[in-house]
User: Fold this.
Amino acid sequence: MIDFIEVNNNSASAKIALQGAHVFHYARKDEKALLWLSEISDFQVGKAIRGGVPICWPSFGKNNPDLPQHGFARTILFEHSSTKELDANTTEVILILRYSQETLTEWPYKFELELKVTVSDKLTMELTTTNLDDKTFKITQALHTYFPVSHISDAKGKGLDKKPFLDALTNEQLTQNGDIVFEEEVDRVYQEVDAEILLTDKDRTISIKNEGSSSVVVWNPWIEKGKRLSAMREEAYNDFVCIESANAFEDFRLVEPGKTHTLKATIY
Ligand code: TA6
Assistant:
């Protein structure tokens, strides 16, 4: 079993695993959860939890071919740095990962990675990379958020109309026309994103606002890929959409010695 931090305040509840600083539950009081979690994610040490908000760092996907898919942060133990009740409605949790012999063998740079989670009537996650080395390094990353939907056929992605995107399935560079609908596998990296994204379904609208990011990944595995994914029921593709706050592909970030970069996502 993976250790986790549980937050309950007047506004909401949340659960954050120390492995991967992985937020895997968030729900406002008396409301349905705003994050999707696979019922068969087995919370094994060293295996990424399927659902919630996996942290892809220091590489998104295979952007750095020398690293595992989505990097190593999501399966490594973070340190619980602090939990503060800012007020009766707001709790702030900070988790930290510092470079080690283990990380240096995977990725030859000294760094500190901090996740600050603010739990209130909104869920805010700020992922801050600090370069502790004497040479600049390049990162790609994502807060790979899984959102529940009533049924995939009801789900629509709004706010990305006319945005260019890379279709990761065909490697084509295309432009979004209208709302995003889900009638087949969707795996797209939207670029030049500068506004809020909405995920609507039959009974609610979820808003995602990003800072320090101009790329957003939208993903649903659909039927065939859904069967191949670890810790996912065969028909689970009907129940979620990933809208990922990212610095992916051309939206990579160079972090100079002593400098930081923060990727921030606000969900409500
Ligand atoms: O963000 C979309 C994606 O890159 C998909 O291509 C799919 O691989 C997904 O991430 C899940 O990856 P995972 O390694 O968590 O199974």
Residues 48, 61, 69-70, 144, 168, 187, 217, 219, 229, 242, 244 surround 6-O-phosphono-beta-D-tagatofuranose (CB under 6 Å).
